[in-house]
Amino acid sequence: MSERVGGIVASFAGRLGAFTIDVAFEIPRRGITALFGPSGCGKTTILRCIAGLQRLEGRLQVDGEVWQDSARGIFLPPHKRPIGYVFQEASLFPHLSVRENLLYGARRSGTRSDGGRGFDDVVELLRLDALLERSPGTLSGGQRSRVAIGRALLSRPRLLLMDEPLTGLDLRAKEEILPYLAMLHREFSIPIVYVSHEIAEVAQLADHMLVVSDGKLVASGPTAATLERLDLGSVVDRFEAGVVLTCRVVEQLSAFRATRLDHRGQNLVVPEIQVPIGTEIRLRVRAREVSIATRRPEGISIRNALEGTVSEIVEEPDTAYAEVLVDVGGAKLRARLTRLAVHDLGLKPGQSVFALIKSVTLDGTPAQALATGVSGN
Amino acid sequence: MVESIWSPVRLTLELAFVTTLLLLVVGTPIAWWLSRSRAPWKEAVASVVALPLVLPPTVLGFYLLILLGPNGPGGWIAGGFGLPSLAFTFPGLVIGSMVYSLPFMVQPLRNAFDAVGERPLEVAATLRASPWDAFWSVAVPLARPGFLSGIILTFAHTVGEFGVVLMIGGNIPGETKVLSVALFDYVETLQWREAHIIAGGMVVFSFAVILAMSLIERRMSRARG
Hints:
Chain A is α+β, with helices and mostly antiparallel strands.
């Protein structure tokens, strides 16, 4: 960041009908950044502004290049921006075959032979070879998404923008696509901006997140740290609120179809995840699945009790609930308790407690307990 | 006898072909503009384009005659270049037919462009296609049913016109005497056999056009899945 400003530096402001957008943010040049917020908060508009599909007043600089500067009358039209854009509905060209769809952007961005990703690589990576001669109308939702992602990649983008590419897909199709998205981040060293209103998707995929609400930026930072914040309750659906724990696989308990994980010196046991020992995985733990005990519980079916200290308690006025933030070896865990429980247990910041994680939370599909490949990056 | 029928047939087909071709060139940008522009007065333009649908052809022909005749602005400009006026000539007939058939080309094209929507062109833009490139590689292929409808309707409509032709073209054999005018002539002179050939032929032709159109539309929608 010293000699050359990397990543994206942006600010957009303007009105769209009755809706006002006013944001300024930075996006790092590596990894996946989630643009997160409830439906209708303006996150898609922000993505369209980065692509140049929507024109608001503002400034946009990508890797030191100015793409928009309203003050100086600069606006690079979308077809001159080296981006890849994956739209919410795959939006394949219905009059072209899958192969022609993939080549549409590739031809127009010029082929490059200096080690850039070629057609065959992308086809292999996204397993598109069997689909090449088919018409988009005959593909399933998940297949369409894969083609759209491949098409965007083949236009040799320096920045990949994705607008809820999983929306409208059923659970199976989602699980089909998720591993590919996680892989993109490893295989292609291009930054990705990913719009989503699903906290689970964000927790699994994103390294950084920008939280948008009502056309304003309300928070930004690394995903884990941002998810720990208790003050974003109005943006993050309380029911879904939770944190991400990064763990390492230490033992496969094959006889019990379970996997033992290490989280900063403490153990967790989850239903079997079939990855090699030593793999880092991300687990999402919802606040509503965490209980608190003041002593180590015995004779209880819950296997996962992490020792920690209470760092913050936020009571929700006019409701029965409170959220308690527990520091577990430096990582934070959120627990959603009743205010009565907080009162009866006499919970106070600084107090030592055990956070009980109902194992059902960790009953993750492979996608939910996705290998992030942090080490191989 | 039969040769005298062939001359109007050839002339009619020639007129319909030239008119359709020129309207394709003129109508496409108009339809595109009507589909994409956000100008508040675009519906006024759309109404002007649609006027020939409701105006009696003779009214249209009358104004065109005034406009193109030796004493009108058209004739005056032509005279300035040392050319004869366009009234009662084949080029004059083409201009008249183009005005008369304009909505039959523009309307289907505009509907087709509307149906294409903004999204495919945005996708094309994010894949480095310039607006011109995207128009040809995405908008035109996706609007193909509209182009087919426009071409067929314009051609058929031009073949069947009468009022405008009579007003601006008159009845000059080999120059402006097209089928509909010839039919009128034969009836007036009680040549029923020739009249039957032309009238019957027109019925068959019109039927074939409408059948072809519905078949094309069905095939297109099936191909699209």
